[in-house]
Fold:
Amino acid sequence: MTAKGRDLKPHIGIFGRRNNGKSSIINLIVNQEVAIVSDKPGTTTDPVRKSIEIFGIGPAIIVDTAGIDDSGELGEKRIAKTYEALKTIDCAILVIVNNEFGFYEIELIKKFVEFNIPYIILHNKSDLKPLNPLTTEKIRQYSKAALLDFTTQNNSNLPQLIELLRKTIPETTYQKPSLLGGVVRPDEVVLLVTPIDSEAPDGRMILPQVMAIRDVLDNDCICVVLKETHLKQYFDQQMPKPQLVITDSQAFAFVNSIVPADVPLTSFSIVFARLRGDFEHYKAGTPALSRLNDGDKVLILESCTHQVSCEDIGRHKLPRWIREFTGKNIEFEIVAGLSGIIDMHQYSLVIQCGGCVVTRKQLINRLKPAVDADIPVSNYGMAIAWMNGIFDRVMAPFNSLEK
Structure:
């Protein structure tokens, strides 16, 4: 499940029973044969993803899933992957045929509601059997979603489907929200502190730094980028006073000691938490670091998979810092990517990375089991700030925004 997490476009999932024509619908939408079509039930196994362009929305990822009525041991595994895919979906299409609406569809609708997924219902193969008013009446007992009689034999009602998708997909998934919108104003100076260590990729900057630079410019601000080794020199030479300093969280202690108290300070991780993470639950959960006891277990969630170095923050630095801060014998478990079902009840705290390579929906659903179980959650930047005693300072730019 890690590959799809690296694409930030809105994800549209197509769900339904076997042989309901889900793959044919995808081929019609993208106007090419990208999904295997067969009269044999169970042709689609693992979820299949295809990039598409939807007028009025832009680039998107459409996800074809296995039939929810699959059978046998292999079928159960396919169904499990179909339900697992729900955690990454921004909008769903539920496909029915022959006026069949029953247990499978009702269970899917429950899942859509559970994961807060907006959806539409297509009655496919209407050229063979049109939608019956009695079926509509039954559907309305369980759902108020838009309902469309549909056929893939021609594209006459494809515009209606596209329009329904455009109206159903949350605008927040395809609009490009600003990292710093409301935090900075035009012509202000934003100073980005970007340490270069063994984790930094050769010859380029990491995604959060690149996105921050672009966002500063999009907000018509002046962007200054430097390594932490030049930070003191910048202020000693009385360069233009920044209205905001954003640093790598790992350098919080050093940067905080140099940046004047009247200059707002935060980190890339916290900025991304506001854009893409569960910001309010992070704020509420971070103080749990001070309540950890011997034997408590902390889960550290990484959204991407990467080569590990001795300077790796999630696998080495955070565990060491937390043990030093608490003085307790804490156990740690690190999980990378988006796959796997995790029993959250065994953990006293969950700490999520910045989430720069996943969508907001994917990250929120990943944390949902912990939030539902009332287990505190935090993120890298807020956790590091708390342990350095500067939590209030680095949250101040966003607190004032809320007010």
User: Anything to note?
Assistant: The domain at 189-271 is CATH 3.40.50.11420 (Rossmann fold). The chain has three domains: 4-174, 189-271, 281-387. The two ends are 39 Å apart (CA to CA). The mean pLDDT is 85.
